[in-house]
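Feature request disguised as a bug report, sorry. It would help if multi-protein outputs had a clear separator. Right now it looks like this:
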Amino acid sequence: MAEQKRADYASTRPQATGAWVASVEEGSPAWEAGIEPGMRVERVNGVVPRDLIDWRWEADGGTCELEVFDPRDGTTTPCELWREPGQDWGVDFTDVLFDGIRTCVNACQFCFMAMLPPEARATLTLRDDDYRLSFLQGNFVTLTNVSDEEAERIVTCGLSPMNVSIHAITPEVRRSLIGRHADRGIEVLERLLAGGVEVHAQIVLCPGINDGDELRATLDWVEARPGITSLAIVPLGYTKHSRRFKSSYSDDPEASRAVVRLLEPYQERARRTLGITRFQLSDEFYVDARLPVPPAETYDGYPQFYDGIGMLRSFLDETALVASERAGDLARIGATLAEKDLVAELVCGEAARETIDGLCALASPEGRLRTRAIRNDYFGGDVNVTGLIVSEDLLAQLPADLAGTLVVLPEVMFNFDRLTLDGDSQGRILEELRRRGALTAVSVPNPGDYLDALLAALDL
């Protein structure tokens, strides 16, 4: 079963340049040295740290020499930190990147940023493509803006695994999809693989562009490179603001089934020769093809869970687990809803409705626990996932009178700052729902967390 965590977009607060100290643990080596929040580490063992990687690399031993800037008086002071084996330095920074973020140099046909509503806030249009965030946070990158020096750093520092977007392998198709820097991405990728860097790869599949024979050529290329230990294939998603795309696999079940069939021999060979499936399709392909999602053992431990690979299978398996291990909690929830004459609604995207319905039926066959699928009018197109629900659609589609209703919001619709993609705050949304008469809760959208949130909201 996949580990369940939040999948935040990132903080929307501006980040100041430099290794600014966010917090210091009392009694830690950093605390003993007099370092305080608001100070800036300017050098570590004589090196100006560019990011958290430099910090970890330079401060790996039992001692480290720092130069620390204090903005209160404008002074820079040297200090030396000592620690016991296994002890942490006790300092956290405001960001993992100290010198700013590397932005994208590509012009991808399928770029979601190019399909955003015109009124979208500026922070959503930042197109990052930073290899450091691939290692530190799991972002997918194209490597097209990576210099020779940076490629050497990835290999030397062992920044592995890396998450890399491939999309296509034929040069002209790659240039058509990605832009004029497309060749550089493959050049760097080959260098990383030769240096022993493990890669989790991704293809965004666009109908009529990189599917069919081109997809087969890309799969052949990946199959010959064992350093690519997993390949996720996800379908093009488009919004109503796209000028290029007006349909995708969600509109064509037979095209989705063709992709599933094309991948099967590659998956079978990988399982036979390597003991892993390796080539993975996102859940949308099985839903769009009207096919059952594969069993858990075919997902290789879910290495690309947050690329939409195996989320449905994980939810289904955890639903079966709570049915057997938490039957008492399910019964208490159903009985309490009936006793208090309440209805509980689990807010989700349209894509997840049927899957979550199975959990709801376990607790309340008569329908007191149910899903509330929110249609995504803000983005439109084929956008239907829970993580892209916005306040505008949520509040427009929920009833004005929510008396007798417990509304459970999915935590993944909010970022680190508890904001939705259309800029509303979690606090204001909850306040509005309560004004309409609702009880409220926020939960990670998986079975165990749903049960915990419902038990807490019902005071059980």
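(second protein starts here, but nothing in the output says so)
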Amino acid sequence: MNAEPHVGFALELVQADALNRYHRLLGHRTRFQTGTDENALKNVLAADAAGVSPADLVDRYSKAFRELCTALNIQPDRFVRTTEPDHRAGAEWFWTRISKEDTYANDYQGLYCTGCEDFFLEKDLVDGRCPIHQREPVAVSEKNIFFRLSAYQKKIESLLETGRLRVLPETRRNEILSFVRSGLRDFSITRSAERARGWGIPVPGDDSQVIYVWLDALTNYLSGLGCHTGDEAASFWTGESNRIHVLGRDVWKFHAVYWPAFLLSAGLPLPDTILIHGFLTVDGRKISKSSGQAIDPFATIRHFGVDAVRYYLLRAIAPFDDGDFSSDRLNRLYHSDLANGLGNLVSRLTRICETSDYGKFDRQEKPTASEGFHEAFETFRYDKALTVLWEKIRSINRDIETCKPWVWLKAGEIDRLHPKCTEWLTGLHTIAHWVQPFLPDTGQAIVNALSGCRITSQAPLFPRLKAKSQ
């Protein structure tokens, strides 16, 4: 976190939020956490370049990430900053839980990528550069504390093979398994405080070292629940629960290999499912500040509206693949699917009901979703779940066109019209209920419109817009 958030960060946030809202609709008790990883050397370097202190830099960018959550209509139960005293206490607590048999001090020389905050072997580089950040790593020589990752080789391999640690998509699971089977090496879990310039969480009992940022950052899953204080929320990790991580494909090594090994060493439960999404791209290139491909999510939300942006990220981007972001494509989907699809259905149906004096609609509290909807969510295919809902929207719109209720209305055939209105309203209410994980404001607005004493005509949910240039 050493720059303003770009639209690529929104992809992960809305995926996690949709999953959380879906389970809450089902009546499940959930806990949704996100936050900012701030104790990295790259933040120190970025602060130097900006002429500010590291603390000022991370305060600025953490505020921006919080604002992105708000702009995307996301309210996590906990937003964890890894510079917070509470997180520091949690990281120190976790450090003391790691088995002493799994750590040892050692002199080390290696090639370090500041962007990844990780060491590389020569064979892992591409043309001498980090394959993710396309930069040459820096040679580092220092004394660190190491973790015996090699001791967990067979255990992690078994967890992945048996599905006890579930990784989706299958291609990523196979990629991770291949990495594990190639041989896990012990690695450094501290950095010298001198090289870190004093930035980071000191190792308990050894101020010459700071805790490796990826050990510190991963601990947020526990510190955010108060596992170190015995908080009631800790039961989300230590009790009978379904622990799901949502992350990008460039950080799976830390979440699917290092993190399970740390937890095994500490005697704590493992995550159940790791969902690995692809990159958001522009013209086939990963969105990033350094590449000049960054797209401002706040400007995009202001132009199209939050639910339209959420819809695009969840419908047009396959959840496990790289997907191209295009304002032109977003504009097309806005008008075809939202304005002319769902928005038109709500406007025309409520207008018919008002004109025909339909009255009150007796809605079900929890309508049954269309076939295939829950199955799509069970495999985390948000795009397919939305496809199910939009098939229903198209079906109702087609039926309205076929029946021509305005002809019945003109002929005064109200007894014929109102039963059909009830059928259409039932379908629309089902859509409104189950669309809420994706488009929370839109779904709630439709539910509210169908909940009064009398159905009245509604203003357009998605007014027509001019195309927005990149």
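Even a blank line would do. Unrelated, but nice: The two ends are 24 Å apart (CA to CA).
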